[in-house]
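Give me structure tokens for this 520-residue protein.
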Amino acid sequence: METAVCIIIAVGAAVIGWLAATAVSRRSARSQANIILDEARREGDVLKEKKILEAKEEEMKLLGNAEKTANSRLQKAQAAEARAKQREMQLSQQQTEQNRRKKELDQQSRSLESLQNEISRRETELETIQAETHELNLRAQQQLEHISGLSAEEARDKLVESLKEEARTAAQGYINDIVDDAKLTANKEAKKIVVQALQRVATETAVENSVTVFHIDNDEIKGRIIGREGRNIRALEAATGIEIIVDDTPEAIVLSGFDPVRREIARLALHQLVVDGRIHPARIEEVVAKVRRQVEEEVIETGKRTAIDLGIHGLHPELIRMVGKMKYRSSYGQNLLQHSRETANLCAIMASELGLNPKKARRAGLLHDIGKVPDDEPELPHALFGMKLAEKYKEKPDICNAIGAHHDEVEQTSLLAPIVQVCDAISGARPGARREIVEAYIKRLNDLEQLAMSYPGVIKTYAIQAGRELRVIVGADKISDAETEKLSTEIAKKIQDEMTYPGQVKITVIRETRAVAVAK
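Here you go.
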């Protein structure tokens, strides 16, 4: 019992303690809950105030944006209103201008109508006057026919004949004046151009020959060149194709051959052999082959240098080689390359004076004689062969025509052709440029005199100034003064058509009357 009572008491004490603890914990929890609620209220108030501030700021931003948008729209509306007002003003001005133009057009229309009426009235008056004039002309014509005893056709024929005669006489006078003026002007300009051209491009006189003299230091070298039983000289002649003449001429060996390139190869090879001292057939063939290559290279280099000096570009390599070969050719004693360069410069000068392309003229002048340096002998004249070569190597048609027509073998189709022809003649005809065979020179002078003697009324003829001038003496009783001018023109034309000559030939016809008396 006591144990049960103790247990009950213990249990009751525990329950009482638990209840007391529970009450204390409840009070503690309630106080903590109150603290938490207070803090929550404070935080809620802070958050509420913050949210209120943020809402106010957002409201202010929206109000600002709305105000900006309203201002922008207001400005745009104002600008549109201003543009509309300006457009309205422009339309008003245009309307005013149109009204003014309409008034002017109305006035012009009324003026035009009045002018048309005036023209119609004057046309009517003119028709009346023309009818009256025609009637008067018929009456006058009838009276003139009655007085003169001639019909209108006969009178017209006589008047035409008289007018023809007067016109013929006046025309002859005009022609004489024009010819004299043209002669003065042409002589002045021609002398100016020719003198300037010759001063710019004159070259030295060359002598055409078929031999080259090789000078040696002493005559002992001749024996070494001949070799044992002549084997060296035979090998040299066989390798070069040039005849080597070793005679009694002191310190000289003559190289003879028609091909100047071969002669140059033989001269250079002989020079190298003499300097080297080793002269035997094998060495001769080796040196000749080497020199031949050097000469070919020099030919190409000469062609390139010539083209560069003249400012000519785009030439075909084969044409460049042919230009270089001109260095070793001559015509009537004039070096062909120098002649071609001179002709090219003359062509450029004259083309510039005439307002043409000087580069094309210089190109045609350089290439005009390439037909004289072929690798094989052609059957065509050199002008036609040169034209074929230029066409083959894609030169332009006007340049090809200038090459082919500079000796009148083909028809001239461009202005370059007569320029090249004239400049070729100037280069070949200037004093000292070429030499002429005596027989051909004498024959040309005789032909000039005989040609002039074939005309009726000619008494004597004299070719003077190396064939540059032909003086013709005519009988005063056979030819009149007016006919002398006609005779000089006819002789000049016949010489130009039938004869070949360098430069120009001046024809002077002299008609004089002599009265001779003897005082005794």
